[in-house]
Design a protein that fits this description.
Pathway: Isoprenoid biosynthesis; isopentenyl diphosphate biosynthesis via DXP pathway; isopentenyl diphosphate from 1-deoxy-D-xylulose 5-phosphate: step 1/6. Keywords: Isoprene biosynthesis, Magnesium, Manganese, Metal-binding, NADP, Oxidoreductase. Belongs to the DXR family. This is 1-deoxy-D-xylulose 5-phosphate reductoisomerase. By secondary structure, this protein is of the alpha/beta class. 46% of the residues lie in helices and 15% in strands. The strands form two sheets. The chain has a seven-stranded parallel β-sheet, sandwiched between helices. The chain has a four-stranded mixed β-sheet with strand order 9-8-10-11, covered by helices on one side. The mean pLDDT is 94.
């Protein structure tokens, strides 16, 4: 199959990044021009030796110096810091940047890539959550495609192909429910990080897995869907689907519903973001319908898992509030993973920040970053006992 596509990956050593490189192994026409990582430098070196990118970013300057010595025999430019991330995102000749870094750290390199007219294969939901009004406007201005990589948003994107987007009645966003579906607040009072990291269906990084357990991840996806598909927040409904076979659905004005089904395998949405509008073969992810004896759906418990309710509020009120929601969650999850915060205090910390940090409509990038800092400081001050990462 003749296919040529030049890409860079921001966050190449994480779950999405490594699976993107699996696809690049399958299709030699995918040329990797740039890689980046925050940690796991040993894996980054192996990736660099295999794919021979032109530029690699190691975020930490000291680690970057050590990495540069380790790959001195290769014709690769090694950069560091936020500027280095943007350099990878904007690498000359690349058509698409896969934004697979976790958190608001993905925002600035994504904005720079859009201005450099790179298409965005978006796995960093925080980019749209914190600055969706800026990102979507810039994509339109520079003629850039914003292609979703999250399995749920890819499913919606696939269900919209060949249909008029303004005919959407509802988006039905499915959720696995995480490891604690059906639990009460009393049963969640003493949850440990080890328990919260045991996702029933997906293998993901620690931050996303904890967010799945609190339903924060689904809340972020609700806000992301608002911007990706140009719908009102009230048109997005979350359904708990424990089997993770139906990845999401679109109900149209005539009440017809189109769903995208598949095994819990992130390679499909990653590959589709790179091959769109074409579909390429993939090995090993066949869905066996004879084994799908039951597909169940339920309403989420937004009283026990009230972070999802907070996300709907943030998405509806807009402005800086989604950024505050996200920043507070990033800080709270960090504290939880370090034993400084209880599981049920994660949504409590988010709510505190949402009440404390002032909102503003149509914020600038600088104001978004300041709101993120203020939200984190609020959580650290209230719960972290002077903890800083």
């Amino acid at each position: 199959m003749e296919f040529e596509h030049k890409i860079t990956i921001i966050g190449s050593t994480g779950s999405i990044g490594t699976q993107t490189l699996e696809i690049a192994r399958t299709y030699p026409g995918i040329r990797v021009l740039g890689l980046s990582a925050h940690s796991n430098i040993a894996l980054l070196e192996r990736q660099t030796r295999e794919f021979r990118p032109e530029v690699v970013c190691v975020v930490d300057a000291q680690q970057a110096a050590a990495f540069k010595r380790a790959v001195a025999d290769l014709p690769v430019r090694v950069v560091s810091g936020a500027e280095g991330l943007s350099e990878v995102a904007c690498a000359a000749g690349a058509q698409t940047v896969v934004t697979a870094v976790v958190g608001i750290a993905g925002l600035l390199p994504t904005l720079d890539a859009i201005r450099a007219r790179k298409n965005i294969a978006l796995a960093n939901k925080e980019t749209l959550v914190t600055a969706g009004h800026i990102v979507t406007r810039l994509c339109a201005e520079y003629g850039v495609q914003l292609l979703p990589v999250d399995s749920e948003h890819s499913a919606i994107f696939q269900a919209l192909q060949g249909n008029r987007q303004n005919a959407i009645r509802r988006i039905l966003l499915t959720a696995s429910g995480g490891p604690f579906f059906g639990k009460t607040k009393a049963e969640l009072a003493h949850v440990t990080p080890e328990q919260a990291l045991k996702h029933p269906n997906w293998s993901m990084g620690a931050k996303v897995t904890i967010d799945s357990s609190t339903l924060v991840n689904k809340g972020l996806e609700v806000i992301e869907a608002k911007w990706l598909f140009g719908v009102d927040i009230e048109q997005i409904e979350v359904l708990v689907h424990r089997q993770s076979i139906v990845h999401s659905m679109v109900e149209y004005a005539d009440h017809g519903v189109i769903a995208q089904l598949g095994t819990p395998d992130m390679r499909l949405p990653i590959q589709y973001a790179l091959s769109w509008p074409r579909r390429f073969p993939m090995e090993g992810n066949t869905l066996d319908f004879a084994q799908c004896s039951k597909l169940t759906f339920a309403q989420p418990d937004m009283e026990t898992f009230y972070a999802l309710k907070l996300a709907y509020r943030a998405g509806k009120e807009g402005g800086l509030l989604p950024c505050v929601f996200n920043g507070a969650d990033e800080a709270a999850v960090e504290l939880f993973l370090n034993g400084k915060l209880q599981f049920l205090q994660i949504p409590e910390a988010i709510q505190c920040a949402m009440e404390e940090v002032p909102n503003k409509q149509e914020p600038s990038v600088a104001e978004v970053l300041e709101a993120d800092r203020a939200a984190r400081d609020c959580v650290y001050r209230r719960y972290g006992q002077n903890f800083r990462s």
